[in-house]
Specification:
By secondary structure, this protein is an alpha/beta fold. Helices cover about 50% and strands about 15% of the residues. Helix 6 crosses helix 7.
């Protein structure tokens, strides 16, 4: 975690207590989780293209080992009580709810009795590592035990999920489909577990969040520091990336909330975006840069030096194109702002950033701001708190959101100047 300079603000902000309209919504998380489960069943059953694909895969599976598959299907008909395996296998011959209410009720009972997601976790680990040995190590199993778990999952579903070869594994078409939904089910299960674990006093649980390069340089670490001091039992996972990647991670339920430049995300009905205070953009360089001694400084002078920056929002990119006359204004693109600051501090490279993330370095003499007479840099930060629209936040995410929205956080951390 980045340790920005400046005094701790933990004692300057009031304790954020859950309000009546923001109380932990365990039922909401349960409903969302079961909704994801039902989505798996619906997609596997009613999408004609997927039905055709599953049929082809099963025909291939019968040719390769019909006896094993038939036995697996027979076992599936005898019991609904095998957790995640039976949850997914019961979708194979599940009629539409409108056509067969008894079958639909049976499926709901499968969902209600689901109590074991371990085999889905094993499958996701195998897909991510691409090799049985590495995946077995990641989930703390022996390789034969992991292999048996995957085989049991394949038998329950009635089709092959992975192709095995000498260099590892690759997912089949059905494997890719199951992986997509398995990740959502596991994320929903974790969210439900977090909501229950955090109910009341945030003494446990996990918070997975993201941050863009600039919020990660100052705002988010300050808020995380306050959060961690008040709720040391909550495990925090922070992912730093650009807004496009964070957007996708949020929709994939890999993170619950993120803070980043949000102007490119406006208009997405799937998102809830809450704006944060804005800061002006500045051009900066190292304090011994030759341009600081050039008077008057012109835009043309800047073109003699490389310009580095993070991935640019369209509005900022357009302004830099206007100023430089270049279609590609950045010579170096990097989404790690700490790397950019070190690069600028020890070379002639120039960069641009919101004032709040360089103000302390400028005050300490580590960086300097370039002023262009007659030119006004209109770019500014557009930080926003982004979460899923219509989805309840876990108690931990809600508490972190409250910290970010408290105006005293930004006032306490922003140097004057």
């Amino acid at each position: 975690m980045i340790s920005p300079s400046g005094a701790s603000i933990a004692t300057t902000l009031p304790s954020c207590q859950p309000t009546a309209d923001r109380r932990p919504d365990v039922v909401g998380h349960l409903v969302q989780f079961l909704g994801e489960v039902r989505g798996v069943l619906l997609q596997l059953r009613v999408d004609a293209r997927l039905d055709a694909l599953v049929g082809q895969l099963r025909q291939g599976g019968k040719r390769q080992g019909g006896g094993q598959q038939q036995a697996a299907e027979s076992a599936g008909e005898q019991s609904h009580g095998h957790g995640s395996l039976q949850l997914l296998s019961c979708c194979a011959d599940w009629p539409s709810p409108a056509n067969n209410s008894n079958a639909f009720q049976s499926t709901l009972k499968c969902i209600a009795r689901m109590n074991d997601l371990r085999q889905l976790r094993h499958f996701v680990a195998l897909a991510e590592h691409g090799h049985f040995a590495r995946a077995a190590e990641a989930v703390h199993l022996s390789q034969p035990a992991l292999s048996r778990s995957i085989q049991a999952l394949e038998a329950s579903l009635g089709c092959l999920l992975v192709d095995r070869h000498s260099r590892g594994i690759s997912l089949t078409a059905h494997g890719r489909l199951v992986l997509e939904h398995a990740r959502r089910l596991l994320a929903g299960s974790q969210a439900l577990s977090n909501a229950v674990g955090q109910l009341g006093n945030l003494a446990s649980g996990e918070l997975r969040l993201g941050a863009g390069p600039y919020p990660a340089a100052r705002l988010v670490p300050r808020a995380l520091g306050v959060f961690a001091e008040r709720h040391p039992g909550v495990r925090l996972q922070l992912l730093i990336d650009n807004w496009q990647q964070l957007h996708q991670r949020l929709l994939d339920d890999q993170i619950e909330i993120f803070v980043a430049d949000s102007r490119e995300l406006e208009g997405d009905a799937r998102l809830r975006i809450e704006p944060l205070p804005s800061h002006p953009g500045v051009l900066f360089c190292n304090p011994d840069h030759p341009l600081l001694r050039r008077q008057p400084l012109r835009v043309e002078d800047l073109l003699d030096y490389p310009l580095a920056g993070t991935q640019l929002p369209a509005q900022v990119a357009a302004e830099l194109r206007r100023m430089s006359g270049r279609e590609q204004p950045l010579s170096i693109e990097c989404d790690n702002f700490m790397v950019l600051k070190e690069l600028v501090a020890h070379s002639s490279v120039l960069s641009m950033a919101p004032w709040d993330v360089v103000a302390a370095d400028v005050a300490a003499g580590r960086l300097a701001v370039l002023q262009l007479p007659g030119e006004r840099l209109t770019a500014h930060s557009a930080y926003g708190i982004v979460s899923r629209a219509g989805h309840s936040l876990s108690p931990g995410a809600e508490r972190f959101r409250q910290l970010l929205l408290d105006p005293r956080l930004d006032a306490a951390m922003t140097p004057s100047g």
